[in-house]
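Hypothesis: this fold can be encoded by more than one sequence.
Test: take the structure tokens below, design a sequence, compare later.
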């Protein structure tokens, strides 16, 4: 596993998935979501019976990205 895909000390599961997913989207990682899922499972799961599919990780990333974009929109009214 390369140092760029290793989980950082103290990095939460969600931040780890987001960091690598964003790096993939930005073209900084030349990996498929299946390859990323293998990395995530090795870093995040102790028991292979608890491994997630690439689709599960891809959907988590997509939701985090959508949420981040939604809440970074300057037109959001904080009082609403």
């Amino acid at each position: 596993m390369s140092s760029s895909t290793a989980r950082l000390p103290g990095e939460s599961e969600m931040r780890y998935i987001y960091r690598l997913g964003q790096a993939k989207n930005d073209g900084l990682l030349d990996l498929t979501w299946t390859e990323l899922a293998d990395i995530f499972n090795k870093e995040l799961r102790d028991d292979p019976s608890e491994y997630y599919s690439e689709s599960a990780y891809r959907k988590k990333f997509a939701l985090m990205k959508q949420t981040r974009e939604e809440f970074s929109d300057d037109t959001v009214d904080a009082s609403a």
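Helices lie at 13-25, 33-44, 54-72. The CA atoms of residues 70 and 76 lie 8 Å apart.
Hypothesis status: open.
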